[in-house]
Amino acid sequence: MKIAVIGANGKAGRLIVKEALSRNLDVTAITRSENKSDAAKSLQKDLFSLKYEDLKDFDVIINAFGTSPANAPQHITSLMHLCDILSGKNNRLLIIGGAGSLYTNPEHTKKVIDAPDFPDAFKPTAGNMSKSLDELRKRDDVKWTYISPAAAFKADGARTGKYVLAGEEFTVNAKGESIISYADYAIAMIDEAVKGNHIQQRISVHGE
């Protein structure tokens, strides 16, 4: 299996690359600047400049794109650019999502981001990531999977080797916590890359 990781220089991207390499997968890092991940293969190119010719040989493309709150609308435009160039193709697109778009009621009318105590500082990023999922749901021409992490997404958290797979609704572990490390999230991401069980679905993961 050939996997490309867009944004491989980021904290999540590097751990996803590392996890994929640990399973002897063929990994290429796609980065805007010099490759700093463990991948031996790399393509230095801005996401918005990517064309299908750049991605055609990969079975799975993992979008680990990240940006500052000031540029938060790029979560939408970057994802739609990838969808446009992968439209009608067999390549799968996996996306690091956000927890703000998870539903908090069975009717799926309220999201985490809608809570009155949701921090204002996180709203630009969470709001635009939620909108990007709304746009993604309209795309039946792309083999996408959107994976939301837990509310507490810990960059320096330990790799326990375990995670809980959930769906569209906000869930917690036995301790009442919604938390997962980047390293454990990377395991879930590569599991989905290998298995492909949730095409055109949003799933979520949290730690035990």
What is the CATH third-level topology name?
A: Rossmann fold
Element-level helix/strand string: EHEEHEHEHEEEEHE
Corresponding CATH architecture = 3-Layer(aba) Sandwich
Major sheet: order of its strands? Answer: 3-2-1-4-5-6-10-8
CATH class: Alpha Beta
Shape assignment:
globular
Query: What's the alpha carbon Rg, rounded to whole Å?
Result: 16 Å
- CATH homologous superfamily title: NAD(P)-binding Rossmann-like Domain
Query: Which ranges are low-confidence, i.e. pLDDT below 50, for 5 or more consecutive residues?
Result: none
How much helicity do the residues have?
25-40%
Largest sheet descriptor: 8 strands, mixed
Overall structural class, as computed from helix and strand content, comes to alpha/beta
Number of strands: 10
Distance between the termini: 29 Å
InterPro entries: NAD(P)-bd_dom, NAD(P)-bd_dom_sf, Polyketide_Oxido-like
Protein name: NAD(P)-binding domain-containing protein
Organism: Pectinatus cerevisiiphilus
Domain NAD(P)-binding: 7-191
Question: If you had to describe this structure to a student in words, what would you say it looks like?
Answer:
- This protein is α/β, with parallel strands linked by helices.
- The chain has a single domain (2-206), classed as 3-Layer(aba) Sandwich (Rossmann fold), CATH 3.40.50.720.
- Helix content is 27%, strand content 22%.
- It has 5 helices and 10 strands.
- The longest helix is centred in the middle third of the chain and has 14 residues, at 123-136.
- It is globular and about 45 Å long.
- The protein starts with a strand and ends with a strand.
- InterPro entries: NAD(P)-bd_dom, NAD(P)-bd_dom_sf, Polyketide_Oxido-like.
- This is NAD(P)-binding domain-containing protein.
